[in-house]
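Structure (tokenized):
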């Protein structure tokens, strides 16, 4: 714990160092991601098959289907730009817990849980959600006390762990169907997102919020931008 605390306090002093860390983080994530992917494939092929259940991976979100529904440019923009910004605001902003960061992040996440952020088809419902979350933001902003974190014994490491696990958990929704009987297996399938949450969180704490957004865009873009050339 002490080593972790010392590491996140060693903030890079210039932009070149931050770009270098961004590149290292990207490489580290892909190295971990490859190992996680192998583990997931083995689990899907052997464990799930032994349990006499159809492949879980087959029900995973497919970008091509999304492109057919929304179009190439709109779907790529959502996947590689809008989604990373929304997720960073929800999970990484509060890793530097200030009055505004905590209040905005919690209110924004609650708003996100109920439906989409930017697009809406039901104006009255959208307006009610917006008003409720704005009231929640102002309530948290007015009542915020940094002693809360101390009282709850929430350290930097615990906050990073909580947000990373939460970030991984929301990606269970990437599966079109979820079998509640096999719910205990699903954490294996979101291991890449959990590890990405830790990496993004460390980059956010050390380098700043915008650098976590850039890394997230780079990671998502690396698996979507090739569609422009197909």
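Design, position by position:
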């Amino acid at each position: 714990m002490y080593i972790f605390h010392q590491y996140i306090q060693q903030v890079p002093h210039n932009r070149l160092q931050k770009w270098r860390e961004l590149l290292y983080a990207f490489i580290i994530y892909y190295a971990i991601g490859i190992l996680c992917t192998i583990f997931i494939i083995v689990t899907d092929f052997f464990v799930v098959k032994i349990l006499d259940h159809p492949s879980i991976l087959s029900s995973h979100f497919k970008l091509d289907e999304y492109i057919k529904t929304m179009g190439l440019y709109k779907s790529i923009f959502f996947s590689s730009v809008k989604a990373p910004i929304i997720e960073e605001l929800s999970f990484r902003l509060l890793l530097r817990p200030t009055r505004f960061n905590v209040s905005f992040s919690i209110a924004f996440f609650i708003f996100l849980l109920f439906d989409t952020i930017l697009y809406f088809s039901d104006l009255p419902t959208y307006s009610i959600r917006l008003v409720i979350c704005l009231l929640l933001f102002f309530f948290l902003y007015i009542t915020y006390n940094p002693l809360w974190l101390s009282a709850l014994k929430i350290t930097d490491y615990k906050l990073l762990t909580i947000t990373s696990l939460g970030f991984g958990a929301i990606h269970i929704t990437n599966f079109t169907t979820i079998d509640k009987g096999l719910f205990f297996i699903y954490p294996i399938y979101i291991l890449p997102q959990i590890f990405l949450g830790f990496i993004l969180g460390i980059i956010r704490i050390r380098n700043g919020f915008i650098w976590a957004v850039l890394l997230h865009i780079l990671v998502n873009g690396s698996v979507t931008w090739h569609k422009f050339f197909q």
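Reviewer-requested clarification: The CA atoms of residues 82 and 126 lie 19 Å apart. The chain has a mean pLDDT of 87.
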